[in-house]
Amino acid sequence: MIVDRLGRRFLNLRVSLTAACNYACTYCVADGKRLMPAQSELSADSLLRAVTLLQQATGIDKVRITGGEPLVTPKFDTFLQGVMALSLQDVSLTTNGQLLLAKRDVIKASGIRRLNISLDTLNPMRFRRIARGGDLDTVIRGIDAMQALGIKLKINMVPLRSQNFQDIMPMLDFCLARNIELRFIELMRMGHLRGNKSFLVDFVSMETLLDLISEKYEFRRTDAPYDSTAARFQIPGRGVFGVIANESEPFCRTCTRLRLSSDGHLYGCLSNAHRQYIGDLIQQPSHKALPELQNILVAALADKQLAFQGEVTVMKFIGG
Ligand code: SAM
Questions:
Q1: Which domains does the chain possess?
Q2: What is the distance in A from the centroid of ligand 1 to the CA of 76?
Q3: What is the pTM of this model?
Q4: What are 242-300's pLDDT values in tens digits?
Q5: How far does residue 320's CA lie from ligand 1's centre (Å)?
Q6: φ and ψ at residue 104, rounded to 5 degrees
Q7: Would the CB of 130 count as within 6 Å of ligand 1?
């Protein structure tokens, strides 16, 4: 087993199916950047082969499909079907929800049970301003459709002081009414936000969020899995919300995540731009690929940090 001196090992794999996205969220994409697939993206079959080898090499038993926006790529259908057949303990998907209606039948047929949908506001004007693509009503109808299929949903919201601060409570009420766990994600200093003063302007801390929520609800901290990224809070009789507090309460010391980008690079840490290319390696027979992959994973694990410092890498490549 590959494990470091803090007892960290890789258990969760996030696979970015494509770097392309139909949004250009202000905090993810710098102005003027086009949302294209990465050069030399791996096929669905190659990504599935990579997941199979990583499962064998590390004992990874949870896979999250992400992007870019995973639903925009034609690879999505094949990859989802293939990954669901791998006998993993858990498969989940993170999407901006814009194409959930279009992909409803594929999602239903796959048997996937959990989805995270990113939604930063319920106000159509602010939605357009932040996402710079897509349509709010389509996302809400997608949420309804997934709930009608009995799929368990979480919603991710990135609170930004100058852009959607007034949407924090409406978003919480919307989620509580629908029995959806809302996850507030503290803004991360990724990509163009690193060293940029807009990070400081827009950052909303866990403390600020909890103060605001306490004006309306009583809540208490509740259980979260050992390697969870979220602090979770129970509002008695109403539901649960979480805060992914990478700045206020870093979770690096219990991080079990490994990331595979759509162009075949492994990242051991979101806060470290080091990466290892495995696109060629995965084409080899398992008896050759696995020992080499073990060495790469030792190096990727050593890339993990003790605290989140941000990185020049952008979420659109490595999927958050
Ligand atoms: N397109 C999909 C989506 O919208 O969920 C998957 C990829 S997106 C990069 C994954 C998550 O990362 C989204 O919830 C997004 O809000 C979040 N994200 C992107 N950049 C971020 C940043 N700088 N700080 C915090 N969260 C960020």
A1: 12-318 (3.20.20.70)
A2: 18
A3: 0.95
A4: 999 988 988 888 999 999 999 999 999 988 889 999 999 999 999 999 999 999 999 99
A5: 6
A6: -50, -45
A7: no
